[in-house]
Design brief:
mainly alpha, Methane Monooxygenase Hydroxylase, Chain G, domain 1, 86% helix
Length: 90
């Protein structure tokens, strides 16, 4: 346990930030799962909307330095590849 007042405050701040980061990371995974579920459906406009939502969440996480920019870029690229593959099948 921290002894000084500032260290105690830092501990509280870190705990709050940790909880917020966990929520944002959960949002990323749930958005990706939602996108993959919409890929199974036939409607193309829902697929595009879901992909746009994933992009938005990944960009927000990158801007808050939650994930590395190259990781976000890699995820976006792979999801776009899946999206284009399902469009060519249809």
């Amino acid at each position: 346990m921290p002894q000084r007042r500032a260290a105690k405050k830092d501990l509280r701040k870190n705990a709050k930030r940790h909880q917020g980061n966990l929520v944002l990371k959960a949002n990323i995974t749930s958005a990706i799962k939602k996108f993959k579920k919409t890929l199974e459906n036939k409607e193309a406009d829902n697929k595009a909307d879901a992909l746009r939502d994933v992009y938005k969440i990944l960009d927000k996480a990158t801007s808050k330095k939650l994930i590395h920019p190259k990781k976000a870029s890699r995820k976006k690229s792979r999801l776009a590849k899946l999206f284009n593959a399902t469009l060519s099948k249809s």
